[in-house]
Amino acid sequence: MMRTLILMLSVVWLALPVLAEIAGQNDPELQAAVGDWLAGNEADALPVLSAQAASGNVAARLLLGQIDAFPALQGDWLSGLPRAERIALLRAPGGLSGKRWSTGLDDPVAQAWGRLWDTAATPEVILDFARLEEPRAARFAALTLARRQRQGFAAVAADPAYPSSLQAYALRETKAGAEALHPADPQRAVLGAEPDLSGFAAWSETAEEADAVVALCETLCRAEDPAICRPAALQALGGYWGLMPLGSPVEALISSDIFNRSTRGIAATLRHMRGPVASACLTDALK
Protein backbone atom coordinates (compact mmCIF):
# COMPACT_ATOMS: atom_id res chain seq x y z
CA MET A 1 0.00 0.00 0.00
CA MET A 2 2.71 2.49 0.98
CA ARG A 3 4.80 1.65 -2.09
CA THR A 4 1.75 2.18 -4.31
CA LEU A 5 1.17 5.60 -2.76
CA ILE A 6 4.79 6.63 -3.30
CA LEU A 7 4.68 5.38 -6.91
CA MET A 8 1.56 7.48 -7.57
CA LEU A 9 3.26 10.55 -6.12
CA SER A 10 6.31 9.85 -8.26
CA VAL A 11 4.35 9.77 -11.49
CA VAL A 12 2.13 12.82 -11.06
CA TRP A 13 5.11 15.09 -11.66
CA LEU A 14 4.42 14.63 -15.38
CA ALA A 15 1.23 16.69 -15.07
CA LEU A 16 2.82 19.60 -13.21
CA PRO A 17 4.12 22.80 -14.81
CA VAL A 18 7.89 23.22 -14.84
CA LEU A 19 9.83 26.34 -13.90
CA ALA A 20 11.82 26.60 -17.11
CA GLU A 21 12.09 24.35 -20.10
CA ILE A 22 15.20 22.23 -20.51
CA ALA A 23 15.90 20.98 -24.01
CA GLY A 24 14.57 17.44 -24.36
CA GLN A 25 12.51 17.35 -21.16
CA ASN A 26 9.23 16.84 -23.04
CA ASP A 27 10.44 13.74 -24.88
CA PRO A 28 7.93 11.00 -23.90
CA GLU A 29 10.67 8.40 -23.49
CA LEU A 30 12.64 10.74 -21.23
CA GLN A 31 9.54 11.48 -19.15
CA ALA A 32 8.78 7.79 -18.73
CA ALA A 33 12.38 7.14 -17.66
CA VAL A 34 12.27 9.95 -15.09
CA GLY A 35 9.02 8.52 -13.74
CA ASP A 36 10.68 5.09 -13.41
CA TRP A 37 13.67 6.65 -11.67
CA LEU A 38 11.47 8.49 -9.18
CA ALA A 39 9.67 5.23 -8.47
CA GLY A 40 13.00 3.58 -7.63
CA ASN A 41 13.22 1.53 -10.83
CA GLU A 42 16.84 2.21 -11.79
CA ALA A 43 17.15 -0.91 -13.94
CA ASP A 44 14.62 0.42 -16.44
CA ALA A 45 15.27 4.14 -16.01
CA LEU A 46 19.04 4.55 -16.19
CA PRO A 47 19.72 2.72 -19.47
CA VAL A 48 17.06 4.90 -21.13
CA LEU A 49 18.45 8.09 -19.59
CA SER A 50 21.93 7.04 -20.71
CA ALA A 51 20.76 6.41 -24.27
CA GLN A 52 18.90 9.74 -24.29
CA ALA A 53 22.02 11.51 -23.04
CA ALA A 54 24.11 9.87 -25.77
CA SER A 55 21.61 11.07 -28.37
CA GLY A 56 22.01 14.66 -27.18
CA ASN A 57 19.07 15.12 -24.81
CA VAL A 58 20.10 18.00 -22.53
CA ALA A 59 17.60 17.13 -19.79
CA ALA A 60 18.93 13.57 -19.62
CA ARG A 61 22.52 14.81 -19.52
CA LEU A 62 21.77 17.28 -16.73
CA LEU A 63 19.97 14.67 -14.60
CA LEU A 64 22.65 12.02 -15.11
CA GLY A 65 25.30 14.57 -14.19
CA GLN A 66 23.55 15.12 -10.87
CA ILE A 67 23.08 11.40 -10.20
CA ASP A 68 26.78 10.91 -10.93
CA ALA A 69 27.82 13.77 -8.63
CA PHE A 70 25.65 12.86 -5.63
CA PRO A 71 25.81 9.25 -4.37
CA ALA A 72 22.65 9.70 -2.26
CA LEU A 73 20.73 9.80 -5.56
CA GLN A 74 22.03 6.34 -6.45
CA GLY A 75 20.17 3.21 -5.43
CA ASP A 76 21.09 -0.37 -4.70
CA TRP A 77 20.77 -1.56 -8.30
CA LEU A 78 23.25 0.99 -9.59
CA SER A 79 25.60 0.52 -6.64
CA GLY A 80 25.68 -3.21 -7.30
CA LEU A 81 26.94 -2.88 -10.86
CA PRO A 82 30.63 -3.30 -11.72
CA ARG A 83 32.44 0.04 -11.85
CA ALA A 84 32.84 -0.03 -15.63
CA GLU A 85 29.10 -0.52 -16.11
CA ARG A 86 28.25 2.31 -13.71
CA ILE A 87 30.60 4.64 -15.58
CA ALA A 88 29.10 3.62 -18.93
CA LEU A 89 25.59 4.40 -17.66
CA LEU A 90 26.31 7.69 -15.91
CA ARG A 91 29.12 9.29 -17.90
CA ALA A 92 30.05 10.32 -21.41
CA PRO A 93 32.97 8.53 -23.06
CA GLY A 94 36.38 10.12 -22.60
CA GLY A 95 39.47 9.71 -20.48
CA LEU A 96 40.03 6.87 -18.05
CA SER A 97 36.71 7.22 -16.22
CA GLY A 98 34.56 9.09 -18.69
CA LYS A 99 33.36 12.64 -18.13
CA ARG A 100 30.23 14.05 -16.55
CA TRP A 101 27.45 14.49 -19.12
CA SER A 102 26.53 17.90 -17.72
CA THR A 103 30.02 19.38 -18.24
CA GLY A 104 30.00 22.10 -20.88
CA LEU A 105 26.27 21.94 -21.56
CA ASP A 106 24.62 24.96 -23.17
CA ASP A 107 22.11 25.17 -20.33
CA PRO A 108 22.02 27.84 -17.60
CA VAL A 109 21.57 25.37 -14.73
CA ALA A 110 24.47 23.20 -15.93
CA GLN A 111 26.61 26.31 -16.39
CA ALA A 112 25.85 27.45 -12.83
CA TRP A 113 27.02 24.06 -11.55
CA GLY A 114 30.16 24.47 -13.62
CA ARG A 115 30.83 27.79 -11.93
CA LEU A 116 30.36 26.21 -8.50
CA TRP A 117 32.79 23.34 -9.24
CA ASP A 118 35.40 25.97 -10.12
CA THR A 119 37.45 26.52 -6.96
CA ALA A 120 37.40 30.27 -7.65
CA ALA A 121 33.61 30.43 -7.23
CA THR A 122 32.20 33.21 -5.04
CA PRO A 123 28.82 33.55 -3.27
CA GLU A 124 27.50 35.15 -6.46
CA VAL A 125 26.83 31.60 -7.66
CA ILE A 126 24.21 31.28 -4.90
CA LEU A 127 22.29 34.09 -6.60
CA ASP A 128 22.74 32.36 -9.95
CA PHE A 129 21.00 29.24 -8.64
CA ALA A 130 18.36 31.20 -6.75
CA ARG A 131 17.42 33.22 -9.84
CA LEU A 132 17.14 29.96 -11.79
CA GLU A 133 14.74 28.76 -9.05
CA GLU A 134 17.04 25.91 -8.02
CA PRO A 135 16.82 26.24 -4.21
CA ARG A 136 18.54 22.98 -3.35
CA ALA A 137 21.47 23.91 -5.60
CA ALA A 138 21.70 27.34 -3.95
CA ARG A 139 21.83 25.73 -0.52
CA PHE A 140 24.46 23.20 -1.60
CA ALA A 141 26.49 26.03 -3.11
CA ALA A 142 26.53 27.84 0.23
CA LEU A 143 27.69 24.70 2.03
CA THR A 144 30.42 24.17 -0.54
CA LEU A 145 31.67 27.76 -0.38
CA ALA A 146 31.60 27.75 3.42
CA ARG A 147 33.74 24.60 3.46
CA ARG A 148 36.18 26.43 1.18
CA GLN A 149 36.16 29.29 3.72
CA ARG A 150 35.00 31.66 1.00
CA GLN A 151 33.95 35.15 2.10
CA GLY A 152 31.43 37.51 0.54
CA PHE A 153 28.08 36.16 1.75
CA ALA A 154 27.14 39.47 3.38
CA ALA A 155 27.77 41.32 0.12
CA VAL A 156 25.12 39.29 -1.74
CA ALA A 157 22.65 38.68 1.11
CA ALA A 158 20.83 41.97 0.51
CA ASP A 159 19.78 40.79 -2.94
CA PRO A 160 16.06 39.83 -2.97
CA ALA A 161 16.96 36.51 -4.59
CA TYR A 162 19.25 35.47 -1.72
CA PRO A 163 17.63 32.54 0.17
CA SER A 164 16.49 33.12 3.74
CA SER A 165 17.84 29.67 4.63
CA LEU A 166 21.37 31.00 4.11
CA GLN A 167 21.19 34.20 6.16
CA ALA A 168 23.42 32.74 8.89
CA TYR A 169 26.49 32.93 6.64
CA ALA A 170 25.97 36.65 6.16
CA LEU A 171 25.25 37.15 9.86
CA ARG A 172 28.47 35.33 10.70
CA GLU A 173 30.48 37.70 8.52
CA THR A 174 28.91 40.77 10.11
CA LYS A 175 29.44 39.33 13.61
CA ALA A 176 25.70 39.40 14.29
CA GLY A 177 24.09 36.97 16.70
CA ALA A 178 21.52 34.26 16.19
CA GLU A 179 18.77 36.47 17.65
CA ALA A 180 17.88 37.52 14.10
CA LEU A 181 16.80 33.96 13.32
CA HIS A 182 13.70 32.04 14.38
CA PRO A 183 14.40 30.01 17.55
CA ALA A 184 13.69 26.74 15.72
CA ASP A 185 15.66 27.59 12.57
CA PRO A 186 18.40 24.94 12.15
CA GLN A 187 20.80 27.50 10.61
CA ARG A 188 21.31 28.90 14.09
CA ALA A 189 23.94 26.15 14.37
CA VAL A 190 26.11 28.05 11.86
CA LEU A 191 26.35 30.80 14.49
CA GLY A 192 27.05 28.38 17.34
CA ALA A 193 23.50 28.44 18.73
CA GLU A 194 21.28 25.37 19.06
CA PRO A 195 17.84 25.48 17.44
CA ASP A 196 14.78 24.93 19.63
CA LEU A 197 13.79 21.43 18.56
CA SER A 198 10.50 21.67 20.45
CA GLY A 199 9.39 24.26 17.89
CA PHE A 200 10.91 22.60 14.83
CA ALA A 201 7.77 20.74 13.73
CA ALA A 202 5.74 23.95 13.62
CA TRP A 203 8.56 25.94 12.01
CA SER A 204 9.05 23.30 9.32
CA GLU A 205 5.47 23.69 8.07
CA THR A 206 6.39 26.82 6.12
CA ALA A 207 10.16 26.40 5.65
CA GLU A 208 11.00 25.33 2.11
CA GLU A 209 14.35 23.88 3.17
CA ALA A 210 12.61 21.51 5.62
CA ASP A 211 10.28 19.98 3.05
CA ALA A 212 12.30 16.79 2.67
CA VAL A 213 11.92 16.08 6.40
CA VAL A 214 8.22 16.94 6.31
CA ALA A 215 7.77 14.65 3.30
CA LEU A 216 9.68 11.82 4.96
CA CYS A 217 7.56 11.90 8.09
CA GLU A 218 4.28 12.34 6.21
CA THR A 219 5.07 9.48 3.85
CA LEU A 220 6.67 6.88 6.11
CA CYS A 221 5.54 7.89 9.60
CA ARG A 222 2.05 9.31 9.23
CA ALA A 223 0.93 7.68 12.48
CA GLU A 224 3.77 9.26 14.48
CA ASP A 225 3.49 12.73 15.98
CA PRO A 226 5.35 15.22 13.73
CA ALA A 227 6.75 16.77 16.90
CA ILE A 228 8.61 13.48 17.40
CA CYS A 229 9.41 12.47 13.82
CA ARG A 230 10.61 15.77 12.36
CA PRO A 231 13.12 16.75 15.06
CA ALA A 232 14.34 13.14 15.14
CA ALA A 233 14.91 13.22 11.39
CA LEU A 234 16.74 16.54 11.64
CA GLN A 235 19.04 15.20 14.34
CA ALA A 236 19.73 11.99 12.40
CA LEU A 237 20.66 14.12 9.38
CA GLY A 238 23.25 15.91 11.47
CA GLY A 239 21.19 19.09 11.76
CA TYR A 240 21.43 22.01 9.37
CA TRP A 241 24.33 20.65 7.32
CA GLY A 242 22.51 17.41 6.55
CA LEU A 243 19.24 19.18 5.80
CA MET A 244 20.52 21.71 3.27
CA PRO A 245 21.55 19.35 0.44
CA LEU A 246 18.11 17.68 0.30
CA GLY A 247 15.72 18.31 -2.57
CA SER A 248 15.33 17.83 -6.29
CA PRO A 249 18.53 17.38 -8.30
CA VAL A 250 17.03 19.54 -11.08
CA GLU A 251 14.08 21.65 -9.97
CA ALA A 252 13.16 22.68 -13.52
CA LEU A 253 12.76 19.01 -14.42
CA ILE A 254 11.32 17.61 -11.16
CA SER A 255 9.90 19.86 -8.47
CA SER A 256 11.20 19.25 -4.95
CA ASP A 257 7.62 18.79 -3.79
CA ILE A 258 7.36 15.72 -6.04
CA PHE A 259 10.95 14.53 -5.62
CA ASN A 260 10.90 14.62 -1.81
CA ARG A 261 7.79 12.41 -1.72
CA SER A 262 8.93 9.94 -4.37
CA THR A 263 10.56 6.58 -3.68
CA ARG A 264 13.91 7.98 -4.88
CA GLY A 265 13.57 11.15 -2.81
CA ILE A 266 12.65 9.29 0.38
CA ALA A 267 15.59 6.93 -0.17
CA ALA A 268 17.94 9.90 -0.71
CA THR A 269 16.84 11.49 2.57
CA LEU A 270 17.31 8.22 4.46
CA ARG A 271 20.78 7.79 2.93
CA HIS A 272 21.81 11.17 4.33
CA MET A 273 21.02 10.05 7.87
CA ARG A 274 24.02 9.19 10.01
CA GLY A 275 23.24 9.77 13.67
CA PRO A 276 21.00 8.01 16.19
CA VAL A 277 17.27 8.28 15.52
CA ALA A 278 14.89 9.22 18.32
CA SER A 279 11.88 7.92 16.38
CA ALA A 280 10.63 4.33 16.43
CA CYS A 281 9.16 4.71 12.95
CA LEU A 282 12.32 6.08 11.37
CA THR A 283 14.41 3.49 13.19
CA ASP A 284 12.34 0.80 11.45
CA ALA A 285 12.62 2.58 8.09
CA LEU A 286 16.42 2.62 8.35
CA LYS A 287 16.73 -1.11 9.01
Number of helical segments?
18
Name the beta content range: under 5%
| Overall radius of gyration | 19 Å
**Helix-strand topology string:** HHHHHHEEHHHHHHHHHHHH
Mean pLDDT: 92
**Count of extended strands:** 2
Given as residue ranges, the uncertain stretches (5+ residues, pLDDT < 50) are: 1-18
Number of domains: 1
- Major sheet: 2 strands, antiparallel
Strand numbers in spatial order across the main sheet = 1-2
Oligomer status: single chain
Please give a structural write-up:
The protein has 287 residues and is mainly alpha-helical. The protein is built from 18 helices and 2 strands. The protein has a two-stranded antiparallel sheet with strand order 1-2. The chain has helices at residues 2-11, 28-38, 42-54, 58-69, 76-79, 83-90, 108-117, 124-131, 135-147, 153-157, 167-173, 200-204, 211-220, 226-236, 240-243, 256-259, 263-272, 280-285, and strands spanning 91-92, 99-100. The protein has one domain (2-285).
Task: Give the helices and strands, then pairings.
Blueprint: H1 2-11, H2 28-38, H3 42-54, H4 58-69, H5 76-79, H6 83-90, E1 91-92, E2 99-100, H7 108-117, H8 124-131, H9 135-147, H10 153-157, H11 167-173, H12 200-204, H13 211-220, H14 226-236, H15 240-243, H16 256-259, H17 263-272, H18 280-285
Antiparallel strand pairs: 1-2
Helix pairs in contact: 2-3, 3-4, 8-9, 13-14, 13-17
